[in-house]
Write a structure and sequence with these properties.
Number of helices: 4
Strand content: over 45%
Helix content: under 10%
Number of strands: 37
Largest sheet: 22 strands, antiparallel, barrel
Radius of gyration: 24 Å
Shape: globular
Length: about 675
């Protein structure tokens, strides 16, 4: 099963910061007034209902209509329309999107990614990108971002941001798409009200892409599926899902080969029961379980350039599971004071730490790259002795509380903290404070402070392979963030300007253990500060025309070369039965001087624009035909990854997709 995410319908306006969860999902965007678009409820950042002007965090939220207008292929691509965020390809599994967040590009789990509030970051690698499902956006109700610290509510990994993908439970809809490079997609959503308050819903998607050919002789095929089944009965909500993604060839572990392979899989269960929900109290209990499977191999050494019989492939065959029980509550003490509180217990465990290899000595239990140990194929060795220490558990508990105090008509204060204890590793207190002052009906100033952390994972603590050795004495890395925000809402436009300062402490980085720099360990050696400004604004040009633009400027050089300036803009116009939208992404130049005397040439990519287009023709009230184009002008560009020998990761060319959508 395969599929690629041909998301599409309507046209494009990018609307960072607007959650439209209080609007019916099938309502047409252009039936809404500009005032309705700004009058939204946001709860991710505080677990209280807030508006754009009252929320005490830098927030970006896309609802289903806005995602469809932008025509992105997966949720990670939305990062390119979020101030402070970018998404590109990178090393390890090169076809998997990687996040650049406020000047940080290390791909080590510094952004917490969730589906329906359930975390995807695992205890082995820490990041979520290798598990992020490529689901068509028709199955997504909204995607929510916190730009900045989120550990005061969500704990580890909510370091530089939080991303939450919310799937739909309200639509009955079918879509089918066909596109360039053998791209096919089918998606189906279903919901039904039954007797006695019982509602069931389901989402299914299939993705396939043959991929395009690259100069190093491989393609970037994709196969994936996503299945979800849920039920809501009175105060009980149960949801199960399974998804799998396969990405072969392209780049894996810094090498490109037709023999490269990557398969990831998630099986998840969520159950939530609401005990109280009235004007004074809200109290709920949730149970989450998720199991991650990953099997991946990449080309390390070719037989062609050595005396080996065959090519040397190697990679992890790892499995983890996470069980969590959470209690969330709130109490309205008075008209001016609301208190939120919660507790969480989690058991994370890596219970499989095998290796996939084409060379292996079963007697010693090592991957010995010598001809007598060539297997004639790549095999999965379920139990690999050097990985024994990776079989570790990370039991933890957490407590949090937050108070919202309305001091006056102009001033609102938020204060809170979360304490996390990870058994035998580390404990952290993550405070937050926000002051929100309404100068008048049109202008609001916010002063926000928060601290966040990321706990080291098993790969950093206990790895033992030919390249890295773990460091069991690692501490959590953490960041202190201060933000000054100006928000204004006028009759036909609104704008946010955010100045941020990040003070990064105990950042985990690779450190060479020998003079030849052939073996590395991990250590808390990195400290840095990062300042910048983020701007985004929305304009109601006419009754049927919308425009939005966002811009990010970093004042310091990014950690690991990345984009110091970038922007995005979109304009959309509604005709009688046709919707047309054009969007663009701009990225600044990147230059990196070569550090390897054996590699000639520096990495240089000049600044560039990527143009996108979405056109939707409404056949009738229930069906549409949509054309989507990404990188419409077929811009040829590259992105830098510090782990590649020459730093170069190639990018995808133009993508055209045609979709039919039917709503029932």
């Amino acid at each position: 099963m395969r599929i690629t995410i041909p998301t599409i319908f309507l046209l494009s306006i990018l609307y960072p910061g607007h959650a439209l969860s209080n609007i019916e999902s099938d309502e047409d965007l252009f039936d809404l007034s500009f005032e309705q678009l700004l009058d939204v409820n946001i709860s991710l950042a505080t677990k209280t209902d807030e508006t754009r002007s009252s929320v005490p965090s830098s927030i970006t939220v896309f609802n289903q209509q806005h995602i469809a207008l932008l025509g992105v292929s997966n949720a990670y691509e939305l990062m390119n329309f979020v101030p402070g965020f970018q998404s590109t390809r990178g090393d390890w599994v090169g076809a998997v999107p990687k996040e650049h967040t406020r000047g940080i590009y290390l791909d080590s789990g510094n952004v917490l990614v969730m589906i329906n509030g359930q975390r995807l970051n695992d205890p082995s690698f820490g990041k979520a990108s290798v598990y992020m499902p490529f689901i068509p956006v028709e199955l997504i109700e909204r995607v929510e971002f916190i730009r900045g610290p989120g550990s005061a509510l969500y704990g580890s990994n909510a370091f530089l941001g939080v991303m939450n993908v919310v799937t739909t439970s309200e639509r009955t809809q079918f879509s089918a798409s066909i596109g360039e490079h053998g791209e096919l997609q089918a998606g189906f959503s279903f919901n039904k009200e039954l007797n006695d308050g019982l509602k069931i819903y389901s989402n299914l998607s299939l993705n396939k892409r043959d991929g395009e050919a690259y100069s190093f002789g491989t393609k970037d095929p994709l196969e994936s599926y996503f299945f979800e089944l849920g039920a809501q009965w009175h105060n009980l909500d149960i949801n199960v899902r399974k998804n799998a993604t396969q990405l072969d060839e392209f780049i894996n572990l810094a090498g490109a080969s037709r023999g490269n392979h990557h398969h990831s899989e998630n099986i998840a269960l969520q159950a939530t029961y609401t005990w109280l929900n009235d004007d004074l109290w809200h109290l709920s209990t949730s149970f989450d379980f998720i199991r991650h499977e990953i099997e991946s191999k990449g080309l390390i050494v070719t037989a062609q350039n050595t005396n080996l019989i065959g090519d040397f492939f190697v990679g992890p065959a790892w499995s983890t599971k996470d069980l969590a029980v959470k209690v969330d509550g709130s109490y309205q003490l008075s008209d001016s004071l609301q208190v939120n509180f919660g507790a969480e217990y989690s058991e994370e465990e890596q219970f499989k730490a095998g290796v996939i290899s084409s060379y292996y000595d079963y007697q010693s239990g090592n991957t010995l790259v010598e001809n007598q140990y060539y297997l004639g194929e790549t095999r999965t060795i379920e139990s690999h002795p050097p990985f024994k220490n990776l079989l570790a558990s990370f039991d933890s508990y957490a407590l949090y509380t937050q108070a919202k105090y309305v001091a006056s008509e102009q001033l609102t204060m938020f204060v809170g903290a979360r304490f996390d204890e990870v058994k035998s590793i580390d404990s952290k207190l993550s405070p937050r404070l926000a002051l929100i002052y309404d100068l008048n009906e049109k202008h609001t100033l916010k002063l926000q402070y928060g601290e966040s952390f990321r706990t080291p994972v098993s790969n950093e603590l206990y790895s033992n392979d030919d390249v890295t050795v773990g460091n069991p004495d690692l501490k959590s890395e953490y960041v202190k963030t201060t933000e000054l925000v100006w928000h204004t809402e006028q009759q036909n436009w609104q704008m946010d300007v955010v100045f941020f300062n990040n003070e990064l402490k105990d950042f985990i980085n690779l450190v060479a253990t020998d003079q030849a720099q052939t073996r590395f360990t991990f250590d808390n050696v990195f400290e840095a500060s990062m300042q910048g400004v983020e701007v985004n604004s929305n304009f109601n040009l006419t009754e049927n025309t919308w425009f939005e633009a966002g811009f990010t400027q970093l004042f310091d050089e990014p950690i690991n070369p990345s984009f110091k300036r970038f922007a995005a803009a979109a304009i959309t116009h509604q005709f009688d039965v046709l919707q047309l939208s054009v969007n663009t992404i701009w990225r600044d130049e990147v230059f990196v001087a070569s550090q390897d005397k054996n590699v000639s040439g520096d990495f240089k990519q000049s600044d560039y624009f990527l143009l996108g287009l979405t056109a939707s023709w409404n056949i009738d009230s229930d069906s549409s035909i949509i054309l989507k184009a990404q990188n419409l002008l077929d811009k040829q560009y590259k992105v830098f990854d510090p782990r590649m020998t020459d730093g170069i990761v190639p990018t995808q060319s133009r993508k055209l997709l045609l979709q039919y959508r039917q709503t029932f």
